[in-house]
Design goal:
With about 300 residues, the chain is of the alpha/beta class. The chain has two domains: about 120 residues, Rhodanese-like domain (Oxidized Rhodanese, domain 1), CATH 3.40.250; about 150 residues, Rhodanese-like domain (Oxidized Rhodanese, domain 1, 3-Layer(aba) Sandwich), CATH 3.40.250. Strand 4, helix 3 and strand 5 form a beta-alpha-beta unit. The strands form three sheets. The protein has a five-stranded parallel sheet with strand order 1-5-4-2-3. The protein is built from ten helices and twelve strands.
């Protein structure tokens, strides 16, 4: 059996696959700001859109929770993609939201899905062609190919994370910036408490990428996890603000061959919400000590 390709692909290889009719580009651009979606800039050839806000679990009050396999299949039919075609996902920011789209498709059972290393900026830097704004659909092609049974990427729910916090065992890796992890600055979403889960390790997603929005080399990825005290021989649960940059942690783990990991889909949007019952403990740093807190930031801090 042919080995499954790594989860990241370089622009030149992606262009060669597209030129041979062997891959379709998916624009997974997303931003935290309201209405965050791609601007009118040129897109990669033939790209179709995957909107994290629209292709999501609409029954949840949490932002862009993972859709089920049926919803993903509906999206694929709407844009004209066979579920076993090869897909290359990119975003306009280099390496930000595209790993979340990659994780979403893999979680739904898709196999031939890769992330464009460096995204649209790297594509442009390589001198590769662009075209107009990404379309909602594409002309269907018969590019189905044999695929091994998919290995679905796992998610972790609230109870799983609560158990991990209470009992230890799994390494909880938080991809948020250090100041948010330590509770030094308020969360961008109003009403959320600042700080971190007890026992969590902070590996900001920017520690796994370079200044150009590319995933770092495997040895550098391992060093980033090890420096934060993450046990790479054990299970890892990735979290962040709302489950987007946590997918960069999962992508990095897959790149170095780590397979025992899950993504906490609710992330801080769920864990950091007000918790009068005290079932989602939060710690924050005061000086060099972590202190348990329970109250949200004052309203004047939330508005910043």
């Amino acid at each position: 059996m042919t080995p499954e390709p790594g989860p990241v692909i370089e622009p030149d290889e992606a262009h060669a696959m597209w030129s041979a009719g062997e891959a379709t580009f998916v624009d997974g651009t997303w931003t935290l700001t309201p209405g965050g979606s791609p601007d009118a800039t040129a897109k990669l050839p033939g790209a179709v859109r995957f909107d994290l806000n629209q292709v999501s679990d609409g029954s949840s009050c949490l932002p862009h929770m993972a859709p089920d396999a049926g919803q993903v299949a509906d999206w694929a039919r709407a844009v004209g993609l066979p579920v076993d075609c090869s897909v290359v996902i990119y975003d306009d920011n280099g390496m930000f939201s595209s790993p979340r789209v990659w994780w979403t498709l893999r979680h739904a059972g898709w196999r031939n899905v890769r992330v464009l290393n460096g995204g649209r900026p790297a594509w442009i830097a390589a001198g590769l062609p662009l075209e107009g704004q990404a379309t909602a659909t594409r002309e269907a092609r018969d590019d189905r190919r044999a695929a091994a049974p998919p290995r679905r990427l796992a998610s972790a729910g609230l109870k799983t994370v609560q158990a991990a916090v209470a009992a230890g065992g799994a390494s909880i890796v938080d991809a948020r910036p250090a100041d948010r992890f330590l509770g030094r600055t308020p969360e961008p979403r109003p009403g959320l408490r600042g700080g971190a889960m007890p026992g969590a390790r902070n590996v900001p997603y920017t520690a796994l990428t370079d200044g150009g929005g590319r995933l770092k080399a495997p040895d550098d990825i391992k060093s980033a996890f090890e420096a934060a005290g993450v046990d790479l021989d054990g299970e890892v649960i990735a979290t962040c603000g709302s489950g987007v940059t946590a997918a960069i942690v999962i992508l990095a783990l897959e790149t170095i061959g780590h397979r025992r990991h899950r993504l906490y889909d609710g992330s801080w949007a769920e864990w950091g919400a007000p918790d009068p019952a005290g079932k989602r403990p939060v710690v924050t740093q005061a000086g060099n000590q972590f202190l348990r807190i329970s109250d949200p930031w004052p309203k004047d801090e939330q508005s910043r």
